[in-house]
Amino acid sequence: MDKAEIEMLARRAGLDKALAEFPDDVAAAAEQARAAIGGMKAPSDPRAEPWPPMHAGARL
Amino acid sequence: MAADARGGPVVSELHWLSAAAAARAIAAKEVSPVELTSALLDRIGRLDPKLNVFIRLDAEAAMAAAKAAEAEIAAGRPRGPLHGVPVGIKDIIDVAGLPTTCHSKILIDNVAAADAVCVAKLRGAGAIVLGKLSTHEFAIGGPSFDLPWPPARNPWNPDHHPGGSSSGSGSGVAAGLFPMALGSDTGGSVRNPASACGIVGLKPTYGLVSRRGVFPLSFTLDHVGPLTRTVADNALMLDAIAGHDPLDPGSAAAPSAHHAAALERGVRGLRIGFVRHFHKTDLPADPEVTAALENVALTLQGLGAEIRDVFLPTLGEFGAVNRLILQSEAWAIHGPWLRERPGDYGQLARRRLLPGAFLGAGDYVQAQRRRLEMIAAVEDRLREVDVLLCASAMDPPSRIEDAAETERTYPRQARTPFNVTGHPALAMMAGMSTGGLPLSVQFVGRYFAEATVFQAARAWEREAATDAKHPPI
Question: Of B48, B350, B438, B445, which has the highest C-beta tally within 10 A?
């Protein structure tokens, strides 16, 4: 992600204040998110279900 | 321990009494709850300025509760198995009438209206709440020096961190300020301080202990767990706090269990899967950690356990899934505050809570899909063996003021896999480093098989006498 993209995503998330006051923290956070996405291998089976499964008959 | 004139524990040694021993001595009227609580408050007064374990010590309420407990024992009306035993509560867990600050300016005036379910259960068992303990900010941002209160320190060497985020819980139990504490564990935060402080910390099966009244970090990764100096105490505490809560959406309808049932059974015939790749190749551990882990395995083998190597997804894979889920769920909680008042967070919490803003719904769903595969992988291994043995921390705890070294070593751990999968996992002392700091090991069991985890842990504890090792403080 380049600086412009980080800024665009941060503003879309409503982080104008954080961007203005803590730009380094916002940039570091963006990099952490990128690293987390890059570090995960998505399941190869397109039918793989997520956790937790949906259950009918909510308990609350 | 030498007895006093009544045949009870010596007053000067009261702070090292386990919770079980304290409960027995109180029930036998060898020690009064007032005597015990006073002794601990005195020790807290002397040591806490160095350790920063407490955010808020409620001495007055604790002494009032101790006097009430003394009267109840005298009248033959004990409340439960922890009657008169003091406990510390991590400051993300509600205690009625006290602020739950999460160690943050954001919630500095947030007074809890009611006890968290786990606290209410401890009081129901007779425990005496001493106060609220230091934590990393919102259980994620620490150790930090830019918060309303200083970070807790390690009683083995106060220049070093005590692990976190349940930092005050770990430090206080290890230092003999109280025999038991509650913590929370989202990516290792009960087991990290247990590892760094040389005590016993359990992350129970997901949903075994109610999360109601605990400020969340990540809904599907958060667990509440006990920190104690002995395995038996950990089982005793778990008995008190476990149980279905219909008002916690994640609460498990597990059958009630006596978690110490297999405590003294030994490990003869127990099949233990050693996840060596965690510390050999995934995140190569400090050589002293490796040696300590091999010693644990060899010792248990000598006691009759069958040790075999098993393989799971790598720590990198588990870590990525944990981070994606945690960051997404934490952003849902903290987004409004991060938008409106980012400056009221400490820098570490701010940096660690912002990443969710850069993740998409698809990233979260992919992580939850991969999570299901990881659950299946651990379940498969636990059909072949009874317990897993693996590393907890790859290094001894670093110097607390060395931010770079702490940042480097903190993520070097094998705890997050079991937040992802929800299996019960216990960390405890494996040995001591040549630098005088605790080294750690982790035992992991099947869902709701905490009794088997305790069984393996107790066998190691008994052989290595880890429960007799205390910091020189």
Answer: B438
The reply to whether residue A43 touches residue B363, judged by beta carbons under 8 angstroms, is no
Which is nearest to B193 in space by CA: B51, B312, B299, B80?
B51
B165 preceded by cis ω (within 30°)?
yes
The values of phi and psi at residue B425, to 5°, are -140, 135
**Of B71, B15, B8, nearest in space to B39 by CA:** B15
pLDDT at position B343 over 60? yes
Contact with chain B for residue A14, Cβ under 8 A: yes
The structure's pTM equals 0.97
The answer to whether B324 contacts A30, with C-beta atoms less than 8 Å apart, is: no
- pLDDT, one tens digit per residue, over B37-78 is 999 999 999 999 999 999 999 999 999 999 999 999 999 999
* Chain A CB within 8 Å of residue B366 CB: yes
Distance from CA of B140 to the nearest CA of A (A): 14
CB pair distance less than 8 Å for B321 and A29? no
B422-434 tens-digit pLDDT: 999 999 999 999 9
Task: Kindly determine whether residue B247 and residue A60, on different chains, have CB atoms separated by under 8 Å.
Answer: yes
Q: Does A57 touch chain B (CB under 8 A)?
A: no
Of chain B, the end-to-end C-alpha distance in Å amounts to: 18
- Alpha-carbon distance of B197 to B133, in angstroms, equals 15
Which letter, b or e, does each residue of B136-158 get, where b requires 16 or more Cβ atoms within 10 Å of its Cβ?
bbbbbbbbbeebebebbbbbbbb
d(CA B417, CA B311): 13
* Count of helix runs (H) and strand runs (E) in chain A: 3, 0
Closest-CA distance, B116 to chain A, in angstroms, reads: 18
Strands B86-90 and B425-432, bridge-based pairing: unpaired
Query: A32, B351: Cβ pair inside 8 Å?
Result: yes
Mean pLDDT of chain A, nearest integer = 91
Q: Is the Cβ–Cβ distance between B467 and B234 less than 8 Å? A: no
- Give the DSSP H/E element, type plus range, for residue B388: strand B387-390
Question: 282-341 in B: which are within 8 Å (CB) of A?
Answer: 316-317, 319-321, 323-324, 327, 335, 338-341
Helix (H, G, I), strand (E, B) or coil at B110: coil
Residue among B322, B358, B363, B421 with most chain A CBs within 10 A, to mutate: B358
Distance between CA atoms of residues B453 and B447, nearest Å: 10
Closest residue in B to A1 (Cα–Cα): B358
